[in-house]
């Protein structure tokens, strides 16, 4: 009796750990894999930021384009001077009239007013600067294209992350079920071992081994529970959902893909891969910067027209206009412009080398993914056959249990093996899907199934 009482708490604890855990009420969301990907692409915060960055670059491009057109500006000033220049007319400067000097005494004429007001409105049209403005606009256009390709790359990467976490949850759930069955097996075998010990047909070491198996099952269950919570939170974050949303995931995913010749995938990557397209835009941007640097040797010539109003300035009418052309040129800058041009030429060389590097990397990814698809497809077929065999074994075990020719622990072991086989099958499917997703990603396509 003492031994029986010592077993009960351990057995009860081993069973309670596998019961459904109470959770706070949360929304249950049913999703397929493609729905999860679409949700992530539309709601993920990081992707929203990437789209806003594209809009930001577009506005910057619009601002640079406005530099082509004339600018209208106004400059107004109010000034106060402490002392005015005067014109002095000495006595008798204009002779005399009737014996009286003209003027009869010295006259001082102030020029203007002590408080002056000027206002001028000017329209200016850059002329030679238009050459540099064109290159700056080419840079802005490249920046917009790069941000769009970065967004496309981020979408592809997030799609692959969704596949990984989605299948990770499905695999962990099956593993959790298998551990639950193994816990039942361990508990049942512990009971059988204790009975054998009491009957004298087994040593106490058998009971100790049974307790160890129960505790190990409990440890595995707790580990998988933590893993599932983390995966569920991660997937909710990727999808832009509340972190406590409960997800009902559909495990049905078509894995029948038709492989085309490897060269087709490579050509598709050259034209669609966002990293390659971004690298091409970086080259265009670097070339524009080189041209803009060389144009710094061209003087700035600006045509302008100005309408001015003044009050208090001597020798100027109240309203007048001016027009003309201004030229500005740095005659000598101690090699600053030359160094800037050489720096930009080095940036261009780096951009061209980076494009060659990315093409080589993408070719390697396509080659690796292509072979991986072929290998994992065979693995999927094998694991599916293993699942069928375990399901048949489970059916036969159920029949033997009903006939009383099989122990309960052995039946539960057969169920656990089926869950394990299904988890292995899902793991193989995940490897196959990720290989296909990597191939699609290398081509610049958002992976969808």
- Gap from first CA to last CA: 60 Å
Radius of gyration: 42 Å
Q: Give the strand order of the largest sheet, numbering strands 1, 2, ... along the chain.
A: 2-7-9-10
- State the CATH topology: Outer membrane efflux proteins (OEP)
By DSSP, the count of extended strands is 10
Q: Into how many domains do the coordinates divide?
A: 1
Strand percentage, roughly? 5-15%
Largest sheet: 4 strands, antiparallel
Helix and strand pattern: HEHHEEEEEEHHEHHEEHH
CATH class identity: Mainly Alpha
Shape: elongated
* Average pLDDT score: 84
Task: Give the proportion of residues in helices.
Answer: 55-70%
Structural class: alpha+beta
CATH superfamily: Outer membrane efflux proteins (OEP)
Count of individual helical segments: 9
Please identify, by name, the CATH architecture.
Up-down Bundle
Low-confidence stretches: 1-25
């Amino acid at each position: 009796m003492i031994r029986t009482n010592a077993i009960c708490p351990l057995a009860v604890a081993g069973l309670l750990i596998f019961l459904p855990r109470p959770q706070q009420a949360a929304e249950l969301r049913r999703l397929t894999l493609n729905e999860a990907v679409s949700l992530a692409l539309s709601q993920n915060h990081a992707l929203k930021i990437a789209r806003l960055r594209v809009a930001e670059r577009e506005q910057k491009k619009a601002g640079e384009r406005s530099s082509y057109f004339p600018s209208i500006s106004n400059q107004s000033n109010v000034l106060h001077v402490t002392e005015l220049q005067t014109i002095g007319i000495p006595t008798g400067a204009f002779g005399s009239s009737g014996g009286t000097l003209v003027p009869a005494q010295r006259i001082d004429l102030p020029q203007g007013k002590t408080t002056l007001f000027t206002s001028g409105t000017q329209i200016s049209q850059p002329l030679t600067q238009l050459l540099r403005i064109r290159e700056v606009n080419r840079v802005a256009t490249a920046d917009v294209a790069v941000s769009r390709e970065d967004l496309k790359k981020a979408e592809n990467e997030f799609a692959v992350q969704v596949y990984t976490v989605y299948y990770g949850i499905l695999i962990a759930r099956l593993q959790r079920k298998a551990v639950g069955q193994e816990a039942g097996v361990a508990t049942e075998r512990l009971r059988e071992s204790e009975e054998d010990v009491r009957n004298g047909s087994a040593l106490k070491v058998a009971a100790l081994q049974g307790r160890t198996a129960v505790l190990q099952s409990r440890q595995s269950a707790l580990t998988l529970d933590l893993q599932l919570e983390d995966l569920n939170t991660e997937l909710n974050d990727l999808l832009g959902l509340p972190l406590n949303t409960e997800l009902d995931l559909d495990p049905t995913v078509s894995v029948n893909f038709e492989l085309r010749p490897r060269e087709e995938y490579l050509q598709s990557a050259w034209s669609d891969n966002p990293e390659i397209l971004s690298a091409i835009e970086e080259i265009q941007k670097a070339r524009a910067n080189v041209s803009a640097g060389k144009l710094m040797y061209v003087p700035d010539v600006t045509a302008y027209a100005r309408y001015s109003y003044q009050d208090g300035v001597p020798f100027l009418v109240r309203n007048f206009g001016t027009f003309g052309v201004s030229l500005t040129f740095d005659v000598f800058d101690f090699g600053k412009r030359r160094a800037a041009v050489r720096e930009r030429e080095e940036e261009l060389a780096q951009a061209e080398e980076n494009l060659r590097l990315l093409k080589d990397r993408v070719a390697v990814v396509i080659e690796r993914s292509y072979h991986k698809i072929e290998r994992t497809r065979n693995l999927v077929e094998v694991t599916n056959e293993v699942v069928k065999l375990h399901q048949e074994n489970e059916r036969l075990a159920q029949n033997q249990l009903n006939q009383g020719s099989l122990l309960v622990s052995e039946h539960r072991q057969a169920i656990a093996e089926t869950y394990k086989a299904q988890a292995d099958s899902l793991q193989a499917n995940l490897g196959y899907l990720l290989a296909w997703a990597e191939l699609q990603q290398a081509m610049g396509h958002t992976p969808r199934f």
